[in-house]
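Lab notebook, bench 4. Still working through the backlog of constructs that have no structural model yet. Next entry is a single chain of 187 residues. Request: give me the structure tokens for it.
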Amino acid sequence: MKKLLVAVVVGVGLVGLSMPASAAPVAGKKILLKQGKKIVTLAKKQTGIEAPTQAQLDSATGAFLTVCSANGQVAEETLDLSGFSLNPKGILKYKVKGKPLGVKKILIKPGKTMKIVGKNPVIPMGEELGGVGYKLAIGEVENCTVFGAGKKDTGTLFKAKDGTAPTDCSDAMIGCVPGSPSGAFLR
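Model written out:
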């Protein structure tokens, strides 16, 4: 079975949109999906990222990473809530012990940075993806972005910069609903 590494870094968000306080569409800085490699990416001094409060984390009933491609693939990975920890400064960390098959680490610094890294068969590689949208949902708190056509999109590598913030984090807006009117991958 081929494994896919997911490394997503999210950047500047939009301000003044009408949406639930728990939804955080943000403009992504860069994304790299590469089959079978370890990749670390980092963005600093970014705004618009949300992390759950301790009360929201304690009451969360699930956490998910949903990834969609312009070629019609949709996949979701369930994340173990016990892997999340929140420090007194509101920085959220996720780490899975051992050798997970999926997401290994998440770092969210509210209003600044979000980083997701892992070896993950979330979206099968093998053909060009055309664009990628994703949503990280931890309880009621969601962060999402959409990357249009990649700088490199070879079937084993998808690399893109400057993702856009959708109007909201619904499946249709991040491109997870075939034929959705979001225009998510028109970039």
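Notes after review: The first strand starts at residue 4 and ends at 13. Helices lie at 54-59. Flag for follow-up if needed.
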